[in-house]
Amino acid sequence: MNTEKTNDVTTNSIYTLGIDIGSTTVKIAILDEAHTILFSDYERHFANIRETLSSLLQKAYKELGNITLCPMITGSGGLTLANHLGVPFTQEVIAVATSLQELAPQTDVAIELGGEDAKIIYFEGGNVEQRMNGICAGGTGSFIDQMASLIQTDASGLNEYAKNYQSLYTIAARCGVFAKTDIQPLINDGATKEDLSASIFQAVVNQTISGLACGKPIRGHVAFLGGPLHFLDQLKAAFIRTLKLDDEHIIDTDNSHLFAAIGSALNAKEDVKYTLEEMVGKLSSDIKMEFEVERMEPLFASQEEYDAFVARHAAHKVTTGILSQYQGNAYLGIDAGSTTTKVALVGEDGSLLYSFYSNNDGSPLLTAISAIKKIYSLLPEGVKIVRSCSTGYGEALMKAAFLLDDGEVETVAHYYAAAFFNPKVDCILDIGGQDMKCIKIKNQTVDSVQLNEACSSGCGSFIETFAKSLNFQVQDFAAAALFAKHPIDLGTRCTVFMNSKVKQAQKEGAEVSDISAGLAYSVIKNALFKVIKVSDASELGKEIVVQGGTFYNDAVLRSFEKIANCEAIRPDIAGIMGAFGAALIARERYSEGYVTSMLSFEKINELQFETSMAKCRGCTNNCRLTINRFSGGRQYISGNRCERGIGGQKNANNVPNLFEYKLKRIFDYEPLPEDQAPRGIIGVPRVLNMYENYPFWHTFLTELGFRVILSPNSNRKIYELGIESIPSESECYPAKLAHGHVTWLIRNDVDTIFYPALFYERNEFEDANNHYNCPIVTSYSENIKNNVEEITSGQVRLRNPFMSFRDEDTISYALIREFKEIPADEIKAAVHKAWLEQEHARQDLRDKGEEVLKYLEETGKRGIVLAGRPYHIDPEINHGIPEMITSYDIAVLTEDSISHLASPERPLIVSDQWMYHSRLYAAASYVKTVENVDLIQLNSFGCGLDAVTTDQVADILTGSDKIYTCLKIDEVNNLGAARIRIRSLLSALKVKEKAAKKREIRSSAINKVVFTEEMREEYTILCPQMSPIHFDLLQPAMRACGYRFEVLSNDNKHSVDVGLKYVNNDACYPSLLVVGQLMEALLSGKYDLNKTALIISQTGGGCRATNYIGFIRRALEKAGMSQIPVISLNLGGIETNPGFKLNADVGLRISLAGQLGDIFMRCVYRMRPYEAAKGSVNACHQKWLKVATEYLSAKKINLLKFPSLCKQIIEDFDKIEILDIKKPRVGIVGEILVKFSPAGNNYLVDLLEAEGAEAVVPELVGFIQYCFYNQIYKAEHLGTSKKAARNSKLGIWAIEHILQGPAKKAYKKSKHFTAPESIYKVAKYAEPIVSLANQTGEGWFLTGEMIELIHDNVPNIVCTQPFACLPNHVVGKGVIKSLRKAYPESNIVAIDYDPGASEVNQLNRIKLMLSTANKNMTPAKEK
User: Fold this and answer.
1) In sequence order, which residues have a C-beta less than 8 Å from that of residue 1213 and are 6 or more positions away?
2) 1274 with 1340: CB under 8 angstroms?
3) HEC-encoded secondary structure of 1200-1268
4) Beta-strand runs (E) in 916-1069
5) Which residues contact 1150 (CB under 8 A, 6 or more apart)?
6) Closest residue by Cα to residue 336 from 158, 187, 128, 489
7) Helices (H), strands (E): how many in the chain?
8) Between β-strands 802-804 and 544-547, what pairing exists: parallel, antiparallel or unpaired?
9) How far is CA 237 from the centre of its chain?
């Protein structure tokens, strides 16, 4: 291009420049007035955003000369840069939408994958709706890169391989880490790279569709955008294949990876202009950014400190022998790990003669063959390998290939090796490539093993992947960490989130050294606090040996010693300890005259093998078998769950397996033939509570003359059928399967589906606190009702009555209301018959349990109670674990086959309120009394309630010296981790049997410390901060009642970290916040611990909140402060304390404080965004806060003064001078703590106000009314107490008239305020969408509040919830689809809050909602 021409063009033309700064690349596009692209390019930024952008602009300058541009920036990393450069910023989705409207206006859905984000954008007649990945980055560009590195290639290499695939494997893309767990065994079993590559792409497709579409199908014309989809045609092909698109519906566009950049150029504003030279100049100066990511202390303060550290660790050396000079017998150990193969050869004295450590490079067998050939070639004359042993992940494959003598579970091998260095070792911490183990040793045996089951955040391969993404070698990356000045605090969550945290730190100018040191800290924090779950690192042990390749990194070792405050032993052979241990085992087991079976050198030289795949047709599991055929006709088959796959018998030993028995007993019923079913066909999905109550429902429906069609056994295909209607990606696998079962029934022409919702289960335990079902089991049919298209559109009828399963009467009552077309007497008779059949089924199981126990006594065999929920007997959910156990000749029992034989000593530390879980406690209480039965607990990933139950079951067993094992199961069906746990348990039991020590059986009851009358005088009561605007008034109100009451003010990030140390990490975010605040205060040294009490509210509802008090007591016990009383503030009489009475005075003052807080909240949030004089609204708030405090602190409350106080406050706020401007109004609803606590929702109100919006938060008093209303509903529909309902009606009347009445009057008279609706009206709003029996957590009230906001002209809503909050899967995320259908103007975004959640991501999603809000803002009717 010649310059004169360009200059000529410059004077009168306007060019636009779009800059898109993504999580991994920078893209730019320059357009002219006709929207033609003059220049476009992209580069990976490796975190140097400024330099990358500068170099791209210089390229443009070379081509186009110094033209004048109107710039616009977009992208996840663009905001800080835009502020720095003085360039406007536009939301990514708006940019993409603009370019689509310009270049492909017929688009209905756009799927965009980026480096770490995935988005689906729906265009529906001018309404743009976007879904974006929330808390998990599975299935994005960085995920594909991670997977590619596993098979030694890059993304484009995967694409090449995928072109020639033959078959697809199921790989979980829910999380890059799980996917590794799935791919690794396939690699080790010899799957081809072609098949693996195509399967990885398929996993990305499944993740995108299930994780993002969240119940909104992808239909119509689909455009594929973003780098990965632009460059990887096979990934695009996988999407097209899965969505079944024809050519007409695929939108092909050039430059699809630059759409955001082009769109931001199209959106450029003409009022900001720069020349290209000016833009390059602006980028030359350093960008200083404020630190948002917390920093930590350096690993080493000085070189001297480091030198001392190196010297100390240099002492732990293994004795080595020189192989060429050695004479005598040698012992071989092979450790086939998940990513590396290690081999060790030891002499008779245990000296290490030879060691080998290498990456598998996709074939562990080839790696091992070359290592063994090498050893044989080095063996001097007269040295023989007399015994050999394999261990680790590929133990069985190695043993089969080389005909080795022994195989041993890796935990035992590691113990042998560690004990060689330190015979007194009591804890071994092993961090490998993608597994983490903590092995506790008691009395020279492996006592317990913890592995990372569901998440491998913080393993070695993570650091490696990270170093690669920053263009570093691992060694250099690790060395950089040692003297970093400000290591960043990456927290302890998912590795992919750490990516986003690191991105954020990079944007703040953190150096590579800070990142590397931060990672070293996080690896250890993850290992200790998330996997091993110690609250205090000193719990680990006194004599700790660390091993695994990751500990070669000095930074990781140092951070471990710093955090655990100990000096550990790191052997110089840390990486090959498994192989060394295996060799030592071979040495121990060798006796004179033993002849080894291992292949000779000649045979190994000739060893040929080929790998093929087949599907086992033995049963519906269709296990994918990997067959390795060796020369000489031998073969080794893996991948089978039972013995049938390898030509053997299933369960050849014939030991009882009650999982198999129960599955048949619950579901083997014959349906009526069609000609004998007068009432037609009705479908029942085989899900959740059907695994408990199917005998009842089958009998009931058959009695009434229905032909019952039951969906088949679950399998992966059924799961995939339902993927597109799943509304929440973080719920448990058993719940996700429900969508598939319902879809199966619909596809099989069933037009009525019966799926009842059971609020209360049968009460099997009189002493338990309650007999709820879990919130998901109770309400899941609501998610089906609101998200499955055929049901929402009315093609298929879903009958889902809510009921209490307490007794025949409550059931009959509900069913008579549901089946109005059937005479009541018929229903009652059918219920009676069904009830008897249900009892019969339970009795059969109990009898079977006792029969198995008798069998164990007679044969001397062992049994294992595989304790979980009823639906864990689903083979797709338990992945064949029961069959694996029976293959070791051990009987398998279910928890409910023995739960009638014992009951726990009470009170338990938990509130025992869920019936299925009460069985767990009873089963554990039985197991602790016998020697020949042990218990393994199954725990579904994402099961919130197990945060409560696992700790309790562990307490019951370990309290009586039994071994507790918990297996986390998910949609991933890799049994590697489960196998290790089970074998370690068996080997520990063997050793225990030998030692034959007497156990002491101890009680599971706790001693509750009561808050007495005497304590009231001098104890300070600490209360966690939950809502500052309300709790400012709670403190004076309680002090006026004579309590030394103090509301804590430490609700911040640091208290969450304290919470993580003291609470089970699966517990929800509010419990971390609450416990963290209380513990931080107690640890601060400000309070006399013998004169302090704590207080917490308890609702007694079916969600986890009722158990916070148990979490607090457990934390106190952990910290050695169990003398501190915990007071429960509740209306239901759950717990009482003589020194703390909820009497009329306390009740009145708390209520008034709540109401005044609500008034302040409504007035401040309404007026502050518009105030003419900055600070005038807050000043008004402070002025009235003083008055309100005095009013509440009076000796006697003067109720007559209250109405005028409310009126004056509202009038005074109403008078504040405001600007005449329009702003979008945004409602905040959600889980009560996250909704009101600024620390819990990352200061959401401030954020919205800063972004130019007005926040609208519904009242706190409304929640109390909701609790009252529930009592009325339950008495009417679920057979609970009528007296409680009458009192509740009075309560609501009092709130509406006495508390809220005066304020409502004043609101109605005011210029600026609207009054809140009556609770009865809110219930009416919610009822068409969710049943009012959804009463766990915020329940139907959350849905009602959203609709109330929409009616109040606030269609924009942020629905806040703690990550994986159970009720919110149903009443929050689950209803968004239905709300949008009923109220097309609604603009709702669901945001998950969690200690590890990426704030950048939250911010992006909130901004998107705001941009839609601004677009929709027509002159709304001003009040």
Assistant:
1) 1163, 1164, 1166, 1167, 1177, 1180, 1312
2) no
3) HHHHHHHHHHHHHHHHCCECCCCCCEEEEEECHHHHHCCCCCCCHHHHHHHCCCEEECCCCHHHHHHHH
4) 933-940, 964-969, 1020-1023, 1044-1047
5) 1034, 1037, 1038
6) 187
7) 54, 40
8) unpaired
9) 30
**Residue of 196, 209, 140, 138 lying closest to 168 (CA atoms):** 196
Q: What is the pTM of this model?
A: 0.81
Q: How far apart are the C-alpha atoms of 55 and 801, rounded to whole Å?
A: 64
Phi, psi of 632 (to 5 degrees): 90, 10
Integer Cα distance of 345 and 355 in angstroms: 6
Q: Which two tokens stand for residue 1341?
A: 């009230």
Contact call for residues 45 and 54 (beta carbons, < 8 A): no
Percent residues over pLDDT 70 in the chain:
91
Tell which residue, 1384, 1322, 1386, has the closest CA to residue 1354.
1386
pLDDT 10s digits, 835-860:
999 999 999 999 999 999 999 999 99
Q: Are 334 and 388 in contact (CB under 8 A)?
A: yes
Tell me the backbone φ, ψ of residue 707, rounded to 5 degrees: -90, 115
Give per-residue pLDDT as tens, 1375-1397: 888 888 899 888 888 888 887 66
Strands (E), 369-487: 384-392, 406-407, 427-431, 436-442, 445-451
Give the confidence band of 1420 by pLDDT, cuts at 50, 70, 90: very low
Least confident range of 569-573, 823-827, 1064-1068: 1064-1068
As a whole number, mean pLDDT of residues 954-962 equals: 91
Going by C-beta distance under 8 Å and a sequence separation of 6 or more, which residues neighbour residue 1018? 1044, 1091
HSE (side-chain half, CA atoms, 13 Å) at 1312: 23
Residue reference for tokens 């009383």? 1125
Taking alpha carbons only, the member of 206, 417, 408 closest to residue 318 is 417
Pairing mode, strands 68-74 and 274-275:
antiparallel
CA distance between the termini of the chain:
60
Residue 2 has pLDDT above 60, yes or no: no
Q: Beta strands 109-113 and 222-225: pairing type? A: parallel
pLDDT digits (tens, 9 = 90+) for 26-70: 999 999 988 899 999 989 877 678 888 999 999 999 999 899 999
**pLDDT band for position 263 (50/70/90)?**
very high
Mean pLDDT of 319-340: 89
Beta-carbon count within 10 A of 1008 CB: 14
Pairing mode of beta strands 222-225, 250-251: parallel
8 Å CB contact between 215 and 246: no
